[in-house]
């Protein structure tokens, strides 16, 4: 597991690396936020039915799943910075293809490319920060990364809407293309902060495959990695159950959007406090409360019936989601080996993305045979089970918990 020995000690706060570490991520997230609401509309304009149009949106997530393991291999082979530059170029091509798509097939291929590029970008950025930031700042660094991405996804739809209102649906992809190109240009001009030791590692022969690295760390993936399925699934379910329940109790689209906006604002405000708690007291003090709050919030949702109460519970869910910003990336960084890190993180992100897909799918399966209220309670219960699971396994990989235990043993000796 990573202990920070190969990382440069000169990076002692996040401000000197803020532009290079977070600027491209913010720009990329703005582009993704701009195009996500219009993908289905683009498909409809090209003649797709409702079901196929919905599948076009799902292709973003499918592309991420398909890209996770190859992303680990790419970052291991060429380095994190080169992978980031390549991901931005690939994203720009996906944006351009989506804007100019003459039929649904070309649109589908372009959207799939966007999902793959997002996977490569996310893994390379996580590995990059894990390399350049010391363990004492790791959770804050990765929580800020998660927060910056959420802010970009929040701002992007507004920029996309402004462009669409003036130039049509295709203009949203223009916003995305501009964001991708800007991120690429920024990466080309900012300094590479990865350590010289990392460059030496890339030149070493005998680089191991992703599957070989994951096989070596299968116990980690079967314990802590399973917990990540709970975390990612609970988060994804939150974005699904709130609008569905709002509609079930009779709220119109405007009020539903307002509920989601308020919840999202609370979510965005809490990423840095959550990272600070993880760095000072340990990861378990964030991941467990986050899952408990998400579980309680989903279980309480069926008790609401008015705009005010739905908003209150949605805000509670935003609180639970917000304090856990960056926790999945932090746990992956903690569990990753100093060597073969990118390959390991490819498998880690695959489990996280699988949880993102499995959560809403499970909600859908439950609601086929039971009312939505039962689905909310069932998913809330699973989140609480996940909290118990993480309470057991997180301290075994958490460098803060291990340091605390070592100090106690030393005092006892």
CATH fold-type name of the largest domain: Growth Hormone, Chain: A
pLDDT < 50 stretches? 1-10
What is the strand tally?
0
CATH architecture label name of the largest domain: Up-down Bundle
**CATH H-level superfamily of the largest domain:** MFS general substrate transporter like domains
CATH class label of the largest domain: Mainly Alpha
Q: Secondary-structure element sequence?
A: HHHHHHHHHHHHHHHHHH
Sheet having the most strands: none
The helix fraction, in percent, is over 70%
Structural class: mainly alpha
Mean model confidence by pLDDT:
87
Q: What is the 3D shape?
A: globular
Number of helices: 18
How many domains in all? 2
Distance between the termini: 26 Å
Tell me the strand percentage band. under 5%
Radius of gyration: 21 Å
Characterise this structure.
The protein is globular and about 65 Å long. It is mostly helical and 413 residues long. Residues 1-10 have low confidence and may be disordered. It folds into two domains: 17-207, Growth Hormone, Chain: A; 208-413, Up-down Bundle (Growth Hormone, Chain: A). Helix 3 runs antiparallel to helix 4 and helix 15 crosses helix 16. The longest helix has 31 residues, at 218-248. The two termini are 26 Å apart. The chain has helices at residues 18-35, 39-45, 50-78, 80-100, 104-132, 138-167, 171-189, 196-203, 210-216, 218-248, 253-269, 271-281, 284-300, 307-323, 327-335, 341-369, 372-397, 399-412. 82% of the residues lie in helices and 0% in strands. The chain has 18 helices and no strands. Residues 17-398 form the Major facilitator superfamily (MFS) profile domain. The chain crosses the membrane at residues 21-40, 46-66, 104-124, 144-164, 170-190, 253-272, 284-301, 307-331, 361-389.
